[in-house]
Amino acid sequence: MAAASFRWILQLHKDVPKAARFYSEGLDFTVNVCSLRWAELQSGSLKLALMQFSNDNIVQKGYSSMLSFTVTDINSTVTKLMALGAELDGPIKYEIHGKVAAMRCMDGHVLGLHEPV
Asked: Most buried among 19, 36, 59, 111, by the most CB within 10 A?
């Protein structure tokens, strides 16, 4: 019996090309495919699929899955993501293991950022 293998993480977005630009310009994802309704992006072995939705009731600004990223400069990453439409979800925190921040992209998905010490 073959084991299951991970395929991708899927997020629903109102504007797929805008979301693809957010991840490619803000977090250096490679865009493999992008149309008005579907995009496939990659960062290392992580594959992120973006699918267009039009029903406002599907995604609300509640809790969703969180994508967590290690970054080399949290301040410049936060600035770049905010310029692309993200919002900080609380302040940047200075923990013993490094700086951490939570952000929400334009459709409410949560991104965690970590800059190790």
From this structure: 19
pLDDT for the residue numbered 1: 59
For the chain, how far is it from start to end, CA to CA, in angstroms?
43
The total number of structural domains in the chain stands at: 1
Mean pLDDT over all residues of the chain? 89
Domain assignment present for 30: yes
Dmax of the chain from CA atoms? 48
111 class by beta-carbon count within 10 Å (0-12 exposed, 13-18 middle, 19+ buried): buried
Span 78-106, mean pLDDT? 94
| Cα(31)–Cα(42) distance, integer angstroms | 7
In a domain, 97, yes or no: yes
